[in-house]
Design a protein that fits this description.
- The chain has helices at 17-27, 53-63, 84-103, 121-138, 161-170, 183-189, 197-207, 242-250, 279-287; strands at 6-9, 32-35, 67-71, 108-111, 144-148, 177-182, 213-218, 220-221, 232-233, 259-261, 266-267, 274-276.
- It has 289 residues and is α/β, with parallel strands linked by helices.
- The chain has an 8-stranded parallel β-barrel, surrounded by 4 helices. A two-stranded antiparallel sheet has the order 8-9.
- Helix 3 links the parallel strand 3 and strand 4 (108-111).
- Helix 4 (121-138) packs across helix 5 (161-170).
Length: 289
Amino acid sequence: MSEIILGSHVGMSGKEMFLGSVKEAESYGANALMVYTGAPQNTRRKDVSELRLAEGLAYAKECGVKEIIIHAPYIINLANTVKPDTYTFGVSFLAQELKRVAAFQSKILVLHPGSHLGAGPEAGIAQLVKGLNTVLAEDDSDVLIALETMAGKGGEIGRTFEELRMIYDGVQKKDRFRVCFDTCHVHDAGYDLVHDYESVFQKFDEVIGLSQIAVFHINDSMNPCGAQKDRHANIGKGEIGFDTLYKVVHDPRFLQIPKILETPYLCAEGETKKTIPPYKEEIQLLLQA
């Protein structure tokens, strides 16, 4: 039986930078990690020469971290038809980010499809496709762009499998397109993983194809199915529950696909600020036989 590839989002800061990211993943007992190349809420980035990549990559090999996933900052919005400057900047930044992903020796860049900002899903999808085609036409790497399934809050694109399929159909370099399947987002979008597990994946397979899933985000949800809220909960502490998330992690169809936890930090006893990462315990919980 293949080894389950499971890790979490980790930080990257201070003197150790990416070397510290790998050490953090190791401390959780993880064999995968996901990192932003800078703060997710802005596009300020250090030069890759300052990130201690060679040391981090060497240590990843030494400690058994097999998969490195990069997440693009979520302020990139290629679906924006309302503000041309935002779209143009997003295209330019994404092109640079793909080069950074390659420097991390990662093969997967997770990207939020973006928001149509009231222009309607079709207009947003057309703009997103245009942006992806522009970026991929100039990029000769083998990095995959994995569009994330979204919960559907506001004008988010990618709430339905059909919307993701529309994007796929418009992308010229289809071999570079993949999907990041987020359990919380899919649940919040209205797909009932708890009661219709097989039906959800059958639907995904029919519309897009299970082979298109490049990475899973394993998150419980604070909200009922279909709430379109996107509030992550800790494993087994939300509306999806432990059994269903355990089923995804151990599903034989997905053993080779990396799975990343993005669950909330915990509070120390008597504290109100969330400072304790839950990942070591959650990884152990999900890996139990």
